[in-house]
Each structure stands twice: as C-alpha cells, then as structure tokens.
Amino acid sequence: MIKKKHKIICLIEQGEGLHLDFKFEVSDPPKIARSLVSFANTEGGKLLIGVKDNGNISGIRLEEEYYMIENAAAKYCTPVLNFNSKEWVVEGKKVLEVYISKSNMAPHRAPDNKGKLRAYVRVNDQNILANGVQMKIWQKLIGTKDIKLIYSEEVKRLMEILKKHNSLLLSQLIPMLELSRFKTENLLAELIIMKVIKMNVSEFDSSFSLCDPTE
C-alpha cells in the first residue's frame, strides 16, 4: 500500500508562488506583515513557517512563532488582518501553516523598510508595492457603487492605441494619450474595473492591454 504524502509535503513540492510563501522563522514583524497584506490584497494565500526557501523543513525553533504572526497581523497591518493557522508535525518537526484569505477591505498596508505604511500585492513569489492604477482601483471600488463607461475622446484614443500596439507600459501610454499621469491612471482604473482593459503586473513594471471579449 502506497503511503499518502503529507499535506505540507505536497504544498512544499508546489514551490513558492502567488499563493504560497516559505518562511524559515518569524523574527521581523513588519516584514512578515508585508507578506500578510500582500496575500490579503491579492488572491489570498498561505505561509509555511519552519520551511526554508529551498523547501527543506527546518521546523519552528520557537514556540512564540504564532504570537509573532498574531502581533504582525494586529499591530503592523492596517486595517488589522484576520488569519487562520494550524500546527503540523512533519518529519518530526513542527511547521506552522498560516492561511490569509482575500480581503474585501483592501488595501491593507504594512510598514516599508523606513516604517512608512504602504500597500503591497503578491506577484508570482514576490511581495511588491501596489502601483498607482491599483490604488485608484481600490479607491473607486470603495467609494463608488456604479461606474458607467462614457465613450469619451480619451477612452476612444486609449482603445485605439491598445488595438494598434497590443500591450503598453504606463510610461508609454502617458505621452501617447497626452494626459497627466494621474488622469491616465484614473482612466485605466475605470476601464479595468469595467473589464475593458486588463493590467499585467510584474515585479518591475505593469503593462496594459485590451481584454479579450471571448474570455
């Protein structure tokens, strides 16, 4: 009879990514808070505490790991974040599984390296700063019940540009539209909410393209 793999082993084999992050230990509450808000601001995810970046199980060295997570969620995340956790014993070592669901209170913020509260999102296996377009999307979703598409000259020009170029960076769109950065981000945010345009976020930049009507 084949022995079933432990759930944590299966997770580790998936590797770090959009929904999974490994932590050897929790020693820096602001840093772990950035991971927590990144998952909450994106699609949710899991932290495995007691697992090295290479996937090796080191185990939890201190019983205070849970309380460090709790402290990070309560004192370093704004608004406060809720999470679920479970302690596992894998290969004779303790691993703490922490689950953060996608939040309907985004954006959550955490301190950057200088202590300033910033909003982060999860991109692949990285926690990165939310860009201006994403911040405006959150603002509009919080403050507006209904956004209607007005087929203005600006909207028409933007759609024509993207039809011609397929995908462009914000820095490329601003001079083409002859609009300020603020107005360009605002326009993109509205059209992303309406699923006319999609934003492709990477660790270094973000590009924008028209949504496929067949998707």
Characterization of this structure:
The model has no long low-confidence stretch (mean pLDDT 90). It is elongated, with a radius of gyration of 20 Å. The chain is α+β, with helices and mostly antiparallel strands and 215 residues long. The chain contains 7 helices and 10 strands. The strands form 3 sheets. Strands 1-2-4-3 form a 4-stranded mixed β-sheet. It starts with 6 loop residues before the first helix and ends in a 5-residue tail after the last strand. Helices cover 36% and strands 24% of the residues. It has 2 domains: 124 residues, Methyltransferase, Cobalt-precorrin-4 Transmethylase, Domain 2 (2-Layer Sandwich), CATH 3.30.950; 78 residues, Arc Repressor Mutant, subunit A, CATH 1.10.10.10.
Globally, the shape reads elongated
Can you summarize the main beta sheet? 4 strands, mixed
Q: Using the coordinates above, name the CATH class of the largest domain.
A: Alpha Beta
**Over all CA atoms, what is the radius of gyration?**
20 Å
Distance between the termini: 44 Å
Query: Averaged pLDDT, please?
Result: 90
How big a fraction of the residues is strand? 15-25%
| DSSP E strands, number | 10
- Report the uncertain regions: none
Question: What is the CATH topology descriptor of the largest domain?
Answer: Methyltransferase, Cobalt-precorrin-4 Transmethylase, Domain 2
CATH architecture of the largest domain: 2-Layer Sandwich
